């Protein structure tokens, strides 16, 4: 995403940027509501573990791959698993913020589309966290998985009973994956570069990380993708940025019109 390959939208037909202060308040308000809502979902430990056993059984009934297969790949080297834990801890939120900032500055119409889709996905996730609390696989002994962040570091979570900053029983859906997928889809749609499809590596890496570190089940990812699919079906993306017309195009049109007039006059 640079000035040479991705020129900003300009001209009388370019959509106006929404007021910056309003957008900051909207995004901050959404984040605060989400954090407050996650706290409302705490205190359902027994139900969260019952749901975790159900999800694990559903995955086996659906013959989904065992999450331990992905974790075993990470455990081949301490550097690999440490990198995965770091990716989980530090990439999720900053990458989404950077995505929204870039769209706001360079693609205002795409910014409004992406912000609306993210708001819908986040709001739906909050409702699911309230009605379906779910312990992550790292807490479920039946999975045979280990908490890689606790063992190898770094970890963003403390003990569940004393962690006042996050609700650790909100595994479904995975907003780590839902937001990462929206970032990739948004950049693929908004950019013109032939390399834009490489942005799909972000949700792919996020998928491997959240499953391999035992923070999410496969079904968490599938539900997040389904919610995003519904949001994108409701909010259609704007047209991709078009290429500027060559400067000689208006002159060519005038010459074509004049030629047609001359032909008509000779009849």
Count of helical stretches: 11
Instruction: Give a short account of the largest sheet.
Output: none
Query: How much strand content do the residues show?
Result: under 5%
Gyration radius over CA: 24 Å
Level of helix content?
55-70%
- Mean model confidence by pLDDT: 82
Helices and strands: which structural class? mainly alpha
Order of helices and strands: HHHHHHHHHHH
Global outline: globular
Q: Can you count the beta strands?
A: 0
Would you write up a description of this structure?
The structure is a single chain. With 267 residues, this protein is mostly helical. The chain is built from eleven helices and no strands. It is globular and about 75 Å long. It starts with 19 loop residues before the first helix and ends with a helix. The N terminus is likely disordered.
Give me the secondary-structure topology.
Blueprint lengths: L19 H21 L4 H17 L5 H8 L3 H13 L1 H15 L1 H24 L16 H5 L22 H16 L10 H12 L5 H17 L14 H17 L2
Short description:
By secondary structure, the protein is an all-alpha fold. It is 62% helix and 0% strand.
């Amino acid at each position: 995403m640079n000035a040479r390959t991705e020129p900003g939208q300009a001209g009388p037909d370019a959509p106006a940027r929404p007021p910056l202060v309003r957008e900051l308040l909207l995004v901050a308000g959404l984040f605060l509501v989400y954090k407050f809502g996650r706290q409302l979902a705490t205190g359902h430990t027994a139900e969260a573990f019952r749901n975790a056993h159900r999800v694990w059984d559903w995955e086996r009934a659906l013959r989904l791959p065992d999450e331990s297969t992905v974790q075993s790949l990470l455990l081949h080297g301490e550097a690999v698993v440490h990198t995965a834990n770091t990716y989980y801890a530090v990439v999720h939120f900053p990458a989404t913020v950077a995505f929204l900032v870039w769209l706001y500055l360079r693609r205002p119409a795409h910014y409004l589309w992406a912000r609306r889709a993210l708001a819908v996905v986040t709001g739906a996730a909050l409702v699911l966290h309230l009605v379906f609390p779910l312990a992550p696989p790292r807490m479920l002994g039946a999975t045979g998985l280990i908490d890689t962040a606790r063992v190898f570091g770094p970890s963003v979570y403390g003990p569940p009973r004393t962690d006042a900053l996050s609700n650790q029983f909100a595994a479904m859906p995975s907003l780590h994956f839902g937001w990462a997928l929206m970032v990739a889809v948004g950049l693929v749609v908004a950019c013109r570069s032939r390399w834009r499809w490489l942005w799909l590596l972000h949700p792919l890496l996020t998928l491997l990380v959240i499953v391999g570190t035992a923070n999410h089940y496969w079904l968490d990812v599938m539900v997040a993708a389904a919610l995003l699919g519904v949001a994108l079906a409701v909010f259609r993306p704007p047209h991709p940025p078009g290429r500027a017309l060559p400067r000689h195009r208006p002159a060519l049109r005038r010459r074509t019109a004049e030629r047609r007039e001359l032909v008509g006059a000779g009849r």
